[in-house]
């Protein structure tokens, strides 16, 4: 029996994913256990910097017994739209089976099949089996169901670790698009265009993972259709190119280290994709940004503590990243900054980092998320000197900040002025007609 602990906010998403599998188990008479517990508050503590949060969580028990005649499934390899994808939890299995010829060890028929399941017997024997032959090993059980359970398994493990990851201060990698995910039609798109759309969406709205209602990938097609918008977005294409190069230049050792990286590598190598790949392609943007952040951190001089605890400070810093989390008090944020000497600053607060843009000829100021790399003048008090994984962080508190430089703000201001200038001399036809009408009625004509 496996028990996973999830943030209560993600339980709806998780159970809907589990239910898809459980419904199939019901139909096929496969024994299962599936219980969703009561929500409760859990205090989690980061010992390294003494921060504590109360987080609302829910336990879910799930077990599906797929053992038949001593055989269990290790994972699956599929090919759709000309792209091979792996679903294993173990890098060694990816290396071993990524080049499978989709030959079935059971019937030895060379049918053109699109997926194989890798089965292992208790005695260590392994077989690569087509999804229709797999039923011979599993008393009639559908091979696609087994493949989808493998995918669910790795999904749950990842979701479960959200709490831990929250504390480690890292964002989640996206899960590979699932083998059982439905997809629509088969039009083909250039991978670069799709990633450029994702880059724009992430820049403007932040990233939403592929299981969310507002998942980034769901907006890609709409944006893709607005060719003129995308053609002007040089930054989105530049980021897409950098993200593609990041994957394309990986060594085989690197890209076979997880199913996620392997599947991304396969799609990028193909250069073309279908809509079923949008989810994983959208996720390349946050993954790439995370890897860039790590690279930059590793190249910059080691961080040292700044000032003394209790000092009032006023500093000019570069904004490097934000991590958000949900607790019963609402959304909280850790904002990270660095100075020119490479020293790291951290601010824990309930508000996001934003810049305001005053709209031309109006009193209204709109707020937008601050971009990584923006420069801020920030004042506050030094609360603590903490060490996190060997990195010295100066924790600042009660901060006020002013945005000094922001590429995103420059772009927003330019956009707004352009729109204002385009519209200011415009007179709508109705207005004209109404004036004409007035003149006609009362102007004595
Ligand atoms: Zn077969």
Structure, explained:
The protein has 445 residues and is an alpha+beta fold. The chain has 3 domains: 65-154, no CATH class; 168-299, no CATH class; 312-415, OB fold (Dihydrolipoamide Acetyltransferase, E2P) (Beta Barrel), CATH 2.40.50. It is built from 14 helices and 16 strands. It has helices at 11-28, 91-97, 143-160, 162-168, 191-205, 220-225, 227-232, 234-248, 252-255, 259-270, 278-282, 284-299, 407-424, 429-442, and strands at 2-7, 32-46, 51-64, 71-80, 83-87, 115-121, 126-130, 189-190, 272-273, 312-327, 330-338, 344-349, 354-358, 365-369, 375-388, 391-405. The strands form 5 sheets. Strands 10-11-12-16-15 form a 5-stranded mixed beta barrel. The termini are far apart. It binds zinc ion. Zinc ion (ZN) is lined by residues 104, 106-107, 109, 130, 133.
- Mean of all residue-level pLDDT scores: 81
* Form type: globular
Rg, alpha carbons = 27 Å
- Order of helices and strands, N to C? EHEEEEHEEHHEHHHHHHEHHEEEEEEEHH
Number of strands: 16
Strand arrangement, largest sheet?
10-11-12-16-15
Q: Quickly give the structural class.
A: alpha+beta
Helix content: 25-40%
Low-confidence stretches: 165-185
Total domains, how many? 3
Helical run tally = 14
Measured by DSSP, the beta-strand proportion falls in: 25-35%
Main sheet, how many strands, which sense, barrel? Answer: 5 strands, mixed, barrel
């Amino acid at each position: 029996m496996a028990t996973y602990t999830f943030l209560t906010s993600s339980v709806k998403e998780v159970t809907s994913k589990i239910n898809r599998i459980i419904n199939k188990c019901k139909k096929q008479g496969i024994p299962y256990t599936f219980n969703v517990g009561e929500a409760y508050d859990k205090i989690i503590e980061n010992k390294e910097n003494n921060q504590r949060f109360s987080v609302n969580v829910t336990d879910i028990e799930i077990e599906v017994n797929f053992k038949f005649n001593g055989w269990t499934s290790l994972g699956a390899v599929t090919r759709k739209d000309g792209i091979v994808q792996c679903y294993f939890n173990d890098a060694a299995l990816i290396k071993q089976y990524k080049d499978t010829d989709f030959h079935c060890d059971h019937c030895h028929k060379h049918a053109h099949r699109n997926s194989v399941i890798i089965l292992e017997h208790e005695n260590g024997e392994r077989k690569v089996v087509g999804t229709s032959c797999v039923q011979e090993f599993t008393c009639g059980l559908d091979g696609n169901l087994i493949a989808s359970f493998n995918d669910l398994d790795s999904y749950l493990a990842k979701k479960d670790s959200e709490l831990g990851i929250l504390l480690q201060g890292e964002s989640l990698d996206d899960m590979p698009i699932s083998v059982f995910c439905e997809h629509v039609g088969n039009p083909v798109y250039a991978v670069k265009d799709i990633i450029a759309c994702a880059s724009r969406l992430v820049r403007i709205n932040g990233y939403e993972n592929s299981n969310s209602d507002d998942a980034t990938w769901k907006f890609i097609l709409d944006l893709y259709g607005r060719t003129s918008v995308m053609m002007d977005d040089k930054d989105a294409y530049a980021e897409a190119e950098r993200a593609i190069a990041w994957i394309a230049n990986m060594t085989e050792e690197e890209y076979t280290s997880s199913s996620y990286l392997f599947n991304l590598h396969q799609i990028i190598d193909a250069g073309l994709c279908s809509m079923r790949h949008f989810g994983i392609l959208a996720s390349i943007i946050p993954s790439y940004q995370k890897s860039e952040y790590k690279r930059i951190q590793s190249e910059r001089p080691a961080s040292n503590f700044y000032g003394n605890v209790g000092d009032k400070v006023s500093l000019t810093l570069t904004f490097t990243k934000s991590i958000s989390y949900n607790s019963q008090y609402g959304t909280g944020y850790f904002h990270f900054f660095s100075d020119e000497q490479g020293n790291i600053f951290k601010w824990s607060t309930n508000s996001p980092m934003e810049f305001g843009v005053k709209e031309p000829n109006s009193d209204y100021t709109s707020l937008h998320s601050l971009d990584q790399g923006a420069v801020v003048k920030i004042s506050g008090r030094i609360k603590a000197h903490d060490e996190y994984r060997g990195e010295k962080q100066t924790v600042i508190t009660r901060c006020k900040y002013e945005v000094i430089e922001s590429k995103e703000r420059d772009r927003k201001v330019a956009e707004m002025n352009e729109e204002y200038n385009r519209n200011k001399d415009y007179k709508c036809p109705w207005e004209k007609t109404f004036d004409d009408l007035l003149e006609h009625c009362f102007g004595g004509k």
